[in-house]
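Below: protein 1.
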Amino acid sequence: MTRCRVEMRTVQHRVLGANKLPDAAWMDTFEHAVGFIGKQRESVQFTALVEMTRERQVPLLRWLAKRPLRALELADVWPKLLDICAWFQAHPRPGVYLREVDVPGMDSKFIERYRGVLGELLECVLPAEAIDFSRSGVSQFAGRFGLCEKPLRIRFRMLDANKSLFRTHSATQDITLDAASFAELDPDVQRVFITENEINFLAFPPHPDSMAVFGAGYGFEMLANTTWLTKRQIHYWGDIDTHGFAILDQLRGRFDHVKSFLMNRETLLAFESQWDREDEQAVHDLARLNEIERALFNELRDNRLRGNLRLEQERISFGWVEAALAAL
């Protein structure tokens, strides 16, 4: 039976006189309190978690104090999480793939499943030098704690058969390299076309002294160390919409000499019948666009031609593409 002690106070009423009314209710013991709310089992379970953590990972006690309900959700796997923390303490920034983390009774899928909470726990138990604080979020768990990451890969085609990398001397070669190998490639071409659409990449017409790179939307980390690109003419071909220009602007953050390709008002108006709708526009200012690009971006952003206007690059006729290449 739950024991509850009620304190009373005297209230003086001008008509009813003095009356005693309840003023506070007290549970004199912790056990009485958890019994009153029906949480005895959870209380016993949390106490066990605290004792286990005090024996094995004292730095995590403050995490338990902040996240008791989350800790109860993890009660069944808490010993395994402590084992993983101990492994990282013994192997700070291990430089291995997640598959190589050798904790008895554990597999990489378990760690992947609990990356979110493990990130919080490891930040409590590891020294600052073992954590890369520039990497954040579940997707960057490996980089944050010194595990090997999947290599970034770059897909490209040589558009000049005479510059083929293999003996077939074909401009249809579709090659993929990891970013480090691509950075060492330094091919014998003068022009590099970056396009965001896979079919456009595969069907890109042959062109002398040139290659095509299949882009990846926002983010050009894969090209960060490719210094030979600074000595090549780079042409970026994206959709004619606000995000297409935002990606162009971002690419210029790495290579300021990039030129846009078929991202002009003439092309947009020539294919009015192929106009589509952009779901959500990029509305921030783009400082790296040139005057002509910025004027078209502002027309799109301000919906002067049509609301959320978009012309996808694959809707431009192949003949128009060939003519633009010939004009170069």
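Below: protein 2.
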Amino acid sequence: MKYRLITGILLIFAPGLLLAQDSEIQVQSTEIVPGLYMLDGVDGQFAGGNISLLIGSDGVVLIDDGLPTTGPALLAAIAELTGEPVDFLINTHVHGDHIGSNATLHQHGATIIAHDNIRARLLEMTGDEAVSVDALPEITFSDSVTFYLNGHKAFVFHVKNAHTDGDAIIHFPDINVIHAGDIMFNRLFPFIDMDSGGSVAGFLAAQDKLIALADDDTIIIPGHGAIANRADLIVARDVLADSQSRVRKLIDAGMSEEDIIAANPLADYHDVWNWGFITTERMTRSMVRSLTE
């Protein structure tokens, strides 16, 4: 089973995973608040995007499930924490580093829930990218859906044309936690997938919505990077907005894309925000594309 961009992501983060057996991936857990955990790869192993797990007497809810190779280790980690199967799996968007183990989780009893556009995009994939029926969301929503489990409210809502056209954010208001999915890359240039309906304007609007939703004590689980807070999110939003402004000025001055790349308008951000998948150059090209198409 393959998803768009999954090979490129693997090559950037952990080339050894392309040859690794499933059992070689290990997943660790960090308790955010009692009953809510963030799961990721042990010792820097790339298991996919950050994963959240809500456990309790009412049931088990998982948010995203990593790469296709992550499934067995993820199930083992969940079994160690709760001993119960996953009841509901929420997908935050369509990329394979976040929903690559959908089929595995479904085969172990999870009901998959996602925005309408995620199911639609998965159904459109053909050939080598085609997914099995087990990977498809069984319950979809257009705007929002709310869970009341384990004494908590989990409000799942859609943000339009941001990272993709099917992004979902999960807000736990009573414990003041937000699972942002790829609406936040903490101290990393964000990937904005314009080929899957994403846009810089939509991404900024989604981040503004999260900033308004959060307070100084809110815990934010980003799609990639360390656990964050509202101040971190504001920094990420401001870097993106300023990057867009810098590139727009050069476009308005009549410069070509290659001239803009040579001018390197995002140089000030390179040392902190540049990374293997979204380099400073790629972020600049994304800005040019978003402002000229």
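The CA atoms of residues 75 and 173 lie 27 Å apart.
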